[in-house]
Every structure is written in C-alpha cells, then in structure tokens.
Amino acid sequence: MEKLGLSQIYISFQDCEVFRCEDLLDKRKMSGLTELKESLLCAIRNYIPYGGLVHKVRILLLGPVGAGKSSFFNSVRSIFRGHVTNQALVGSDPTGTSEKYRTYFIKDGKDNNTLPFILCDTMGLSEKEGLDMDDIPYILEGHFPDKYQFNSLKLRPKGIGNHTGCPLLKDRIHCVAFVFSANSVGQLSHEMVEKIKRIRRELIKSDVVHVVLLTHVDTLDLITKGDLIDVYKCVPVKLQLEAVHRKLGFALSDIFVVSNYTSEWELEPVIDVLILSALKEMLRAADDFLENFPLEKTVVNALNGEDAAAAAAAAKSLQSCVTP
Ligand SMILES: Nc1nc2c(ncn2[C@@H]2O[C@H](COP(=O)(O)OP(=O)(O)OP(=O)(O)O)[C@@H](O)[C@H]2O)c(=O)[nH]1
Ligand SMILES: [Mg+2]
C-alpha cells in the first residue's frame, strides 16, 4: 500500500458483494455441444441390447418423492420429440406425485420408431408412506404391469403381470437409476439413507447394475448455464457428488448430473448433452446386467416369451460357451 502511496488513504469496507457474470455460451462451444448431442442421439438410437437378448432394456427410476424421476422421463421424451413436452405429471403438490407404476415407451420424432429402452417410473420413496419396500422385488422381476396402482394394503392381485413364477427377461428391470435432487441430498434423513442402502444391498445381491442421477443442479448456488458444459469440474457440484458418495456409498463414477426440463420453453443443447450422456451410461449398465445374466435362465426366459430371435441369440451364446 505504501509503495502505491495509499498509506494515508483510509478505506472502510462495510459490505462486500460478490458478483458472478452469467457467461454466454460462445459459438464455438455451441457447435461442439451440437455435435456431441448428435453423436449421443445416434448412439442411443442405434443401441442394440447386449447379445440381442431383449429388444428394449428397462430402466427403473427410483428415489425420494420429488427427486425428479417423472421430470427425467419428460426430459428424455422432449429431446427425442424435438420440443419440450410434459407427458408425465410432475410437481411438488399431491396432484403431481406419482402413485401408479408407469412403463414409458418413447417414440423417436425422427422416424416415429420406438426407442430401444423403456423408462419405468415409480412412486417416490419416503420415510413413512411412499413406495413399499416389499414391492421393489416384484418391480425388479417385472411382475407389475403399466399403470399398476400402488396400494397401502399390500394386496397384490394374483397372476399380476406375467407372474408365472418365472418372469421373462424382457419384462424385468435391467438397470436401476437412483434419482436424487442435488439440493437436498445433504439433508436426507437417517431413515431415508437406511432405506436406500437396504435397496442397494439387495440390488448388489441380485446383480442388478445401478447408477445415480443427480437432478436439480441448475438450482445450486453459483451455478450458471455455462457451468453445465463442464459440470463435473464445478465446485458446488463436486461437493454434492461427494455427499452422495459419502452418505450412500455410490461410486463417484456412477453418479451422473442432469438438469431436467422444468421451466424451459425450448430445448437447449447443454441440457440435452447432460441428459443423453446419463442415458447412454444407463444403457451400458443394462448391457452389463444382460452380459452377466445366467445363460440357462436367459434361454428359458426367451423361449417362454415366444421371442424366437431372442431365444436364438441366447441359444447361440450358450452354445458358444459350451463348445470348446
Ligand atoms: N429446477 C429443477 N427443478 C426440477 C428438476 N427436476 C425436477 N424438478 C422439479 O421438482 C419437482 C418434482 O419433480 P417430479 O419429476 O414430479 O419428481 P418425482 O421424483 O417424480 O416425484 P414423485 O412422483 O412425487 O416421487 C417438480 O416441481 C419439478 O418441476 C431439475 O432438474 N431442476
Ligand atoms: Mg413422479
């Protein structure tokens, strides 16, 4: 200060305001994002489940009430439709709370074909009410049909879905995506943490591959749209990733950050890339599950399903394993 000749100047700071400028996405970044989006769209459209064992993989969205499960389905559907749509009801009041089990097929706006995955949306987990833990094995094995109404009486109709005692491979869940909100994961109650850990233990026991979706990143303090390009390097996001890892035990590399379409009118490449990247990882996880699924069971399942192509694919893989 003295060197600058400022020693005599008395400066008093009474308030300190920190501003952060919303950085505009420049053209170069935008064209990179558009290219990345196109390559992700192409990979997902052309995805064929491992070994052709099923036509479409089923991804189960599981997580606390209000985490953004239904919004994630709406976001994926919006991207493939080419405009923002809201098929599933969402919201924080009871009208937007999911009470039925929904299995959503998504049509690609480009050619009107259904995409090779099904997003299965459940009732949210909560400390007292919400999804019944006893329902989870039924969901995983594929016993619940679309629009199944969860009920608190634990009465499950006999012969529900394909409940023949031997569920079909095509009907069961191939990947679970746990969904948490980035702005509340640090405040998950002890009961909720225990519930999630219990589900995770069960999944590990039955070899069901799972990943984590961290929604609501757009609402974290100090996050701008520009940050979403390199979101994993962003300090507020890193802190939340570490919180999920520490509290719930998920590997950091299995946690994917997204920002759902909830208030936007138009699609934005930066948001699309996050959502499509997470979806691509889910398809990979589903492949890991199919690859490790016991082959004998695969053949039985495929034959029961009268799916000749899947049965042939399964029989071929089985033969290649037993033939020296
Ligand atoms: N800002 C922001 N809001 C989100 C995001 N995802 C979801 N929301 C909002 O969070 C609220 C709950 O979202 P839902 O998609 O209904 O959550 P859910 O997990 O399906 O909730 P349940 O069906 O009750 O279990 C809604 O008001 C959404 O608009 C996100 O990524 N960012
Ligand atoms: Mg919902």
Automatic annotation (TrEMBL):
Signal peptide span: none
Matching CDD domains: Ras_like_GTPase
Transmembrane segments: none
Gene3D superfamilies recorded: P-loop containing nucleotide triphosphate hydrolases (3.40.50.300)
InterPro entries with a match to the protein in the record: P-loop_NTPase (IPR027417)
Single Gene Ontology BP annotation: immune response
Domain of life where this protein originates: Eukaryota
Name of this protein: Interferon-induced protein 44
Organism: Bos mutus grunniens (Wild yak)
